[in-house]
Structures are given as structure tokens and as C-alpha cells.
Amino acid sequence: MITKSELEKLLASTETYRVERTKSTTDKDKFGEAVCAFANDMPDCGKPGYLFIGVDNDGHPCGMKATDELLQKFAAIRSDGNILPIPTISVDSFSLPGGDVIAVEVLPSDQPPVRYRGRTWIRIGPRRDIASPAEETILAERKARNFTTFDARPCFGASLDDIDLDLFLHDYLPKAVDAEILAADDRPIERKMESLRFFNSAYGLPTNAAVLLFGKDPRRFFPGAYVQYVSFGGRDKAATILNEHPFNGPVVRMLAQIDLFIETTIARKRPVFVTALREETRTDYPKGAIRELVMNAIMHRDYQGNAPIHFYQYADRLEIVNHGGLYGRARPENFPNVSDYRNPIIAEAMKVLGYVNCYNRGINMVQDELEANGNGKAEFSFRLITAFEAKVAKAGQQQELDQFKQDSSMKSSMKSSMKSDDRLLLVLKDDPTMSLPKMAEAIGLSVAGVRKVLDKLRATGRIRRIGPDKGGRWEVVNGEGK
Fold it and tell me: Which listed CATH number (3.40.47.10, 1.20.1260.10, 3.40.50.1820, 1.10.10.10) goes with 398-476?
């Protein structure tokens, strides 16, 4: 950390690519951008940069008092999730004749480009600016010079005892290497793994990819390495939870579990009421599209975070959130036409196993399949900055219900062709937690009328109540949606 004499010397000089001054103690964006710029070390000087708080443009203290609260506030900049990869900083305060000065020392990152809220900031002489594409390329190449990707690095603390070697030898290796070559390969297991970048001989350790793909307990080393599925009875997280299941274990086994789960639970076919005499078979979500989205989340996520992939099912949509925003050259403005791989070894393994294609065609195929199934296109959100979110609307039934509610003339038409029993079944299938007043509005009856229809449906066994009056839900057990 900088000494007091070094601080006074830098304050007496002008602002440079290594020094920024500010009187403000509240401009969080300014602080984050400054730390990001110093971490990127665009001149490649290899020296720390300094943000001095509590001084004017001439380097004179402006009477600030460096409290513990302020020091904690600036120390928290490194880990609040807005600057990624997380920079290395130190924070200290110094008492000078004109007041206190807080010094934030930022070391150059060995994993550039570093971004603040998704943008790469650099120092150009005494000023700060957003990096151009060419400057980002220079930073990315510097990263390649400094380090390999995360999944290629040795997993410190792990050993071959933490790897399910049978899973590697019998489930993966025969799919990755030609049978004749395998038959003639008498090398030790470490050399076989190293040839596929699953072992680092310099450290004598399995790589992060090996632990994630074949580890006996990957979450021991990467707590967020799992997929959390939750099914909600309504349209938000306040609704009753109908089902919850975490997918754990080595990625190789988890992929097969999720693949089967999507086919049997998410993409299952169901009969849908059309008229009193006709039903159609529909799928709420096409298997191929949802499978591609979940597999992409597993492949592209940032495994250095502690949160799982969120795979949430609501009454009207699916949401998939994986942690780690767009990576490398991929940007909101060029997505999905430009892709990059945060975890290229994991991506290669998933391709070997047949779960992804790695041809940058997956998202286009997803959109085509969703539109053909009546879901409409998936919505991709970049607003979370440090995470990537995909939303898929439920097919068929939601569109029918939205159209049903559009205007009074459409409601009248629906009323004439559908019994109130059938209209209420359609509504309850869409939102099992809907209140009585909302049911009445949706099907055009009074609350008392809705009560009579509910009593009739319960008496005939077509619906049943799960849970209490408040916080429970309706379940359609016969008729539409069976």
C-alpha cells in the first residue's frame, strides 16, 4: 500500500494514467469507473493506480473526515458485483494539514478486460474513457498472455481422489477419442486427462473443468455449480411453490438428468379444450428449445459465483438465469450473431457428449422452434449486467386467454360458444391461484356466480382445492387441461 510520503508526492503532481482525484464521496459510478480503468492498466505499465478521495483538482485536501463508514464503503467497491472480474484493491486513509485523504490503490488485473456495469473503462493520459473495440482486443490478448481460461486452470485444493475416474474413463473418453487410439494408449490416467486439458502437470492437479465435469462433489469447490428448478403456481415468486428440485453433481451426469426432466416435465404433451366436442394435443414448451437454453446456461455461466442457475417455471412462462453476463466479444448489440466462450473446455465436452453444437446457431434454432410451437420468440435480457436472463412464454393457452380478455365483444363471442364451466376451467388452468374477483372479471360472471360454478365443478370432481383458502391453489383434475 502507498506510504504517506508517496501520497504527498503524487498529490503534488498532475493527474496521470495512474492518478485520479475527486472531492466527492458519493459518486459511486465515478469510483467504479476509476477502479475499473486502473485495473485494466491500458498502458501496460504493471504499476498500481490510485484514486484519491477528499482532494481538489490541484491536489489539496478539502477538509473531509475519513470515517470508518466511508472506508468500508470504498472497500466494498471490489465485491459489489458491478466490477468483473473482481479487482484487487487496498483502501487506507491519511491525515494531512488540510483534512483527511482516502487512497484507493488498484493493482493491474491479470484478467482484462475488466468491466464496470458491462463497460470497459480505461485511462487515456489524465482522463478516463470507454475502451474502443480495438483497445478491448488489446486487453483480451493480454489476458491470453497472462492466463488461460478459468476452466483450464488448476483447481487448487483438489486431487485425483476428488475425480470420478470411472465417469471420465467409461462415459466420456470413448466419445472424445477414437477407439483404436484408445486401445493403443497405455499412458497413466494423468496423461490421458492432460491431453484433453483436464489435468495440469505443472501443478499436479486436475483442472477446474475436470472437477466440474467429473468431480465427486463439485460444489465443495464451486458452491454455485448446480441448477435450481422451482415451479410456481402463479405468475410471480409470491405464488405457491408447486415443485422444487436442485440438479447437483458432476456436469456430465447433471446434463442427462436435466435432459430427461425437460422431456418428461417441461415439454410433456397435454390435451387442450377447443370446443365441447374437440380437443387438441399441445406442448407448453418445445423440448429442443428449452433444452438448448438450459444447456447454454450451464455452458456459459460464471462458475466463480456462488449462486446456482435459476430455472423457474411460472403459470405463464419459463425464466432461465445464469450468472455471468455476455462474455468476451459478445455484446447486447451483436447478440446472438457473435459468440464467445467463457468455458471453452466445458463447451467442448458438452459438444462431445452431444448436448450443444458450438456452431453459433443455437439461439436461431431456439427462436424458430418456439415460434413454430406458438410460444413466440424468447426474450433475452441484459439488464442484470452480471447475469444473463432468458424468458419463454407459455404456448397456446396464454395467447387464448389474453385474446379472451381483450375486449367485451370478444368476451361475448366466447361466452356464446363456451359454457361458464369450461371458461372457468381455462382460467384456473392458466392461473391456479387466481382470486374470486379476478375469476369473475375474466369469465364475465358475478362473484356469486363464480362461487356456484366452483361448487359445481368441485361436486363433479373436475377441480379440487389444494391448501387453505389463502395461499392455496386450484387443481384441474378433469376436463380441460387434464
Answer: 1.10.10.10
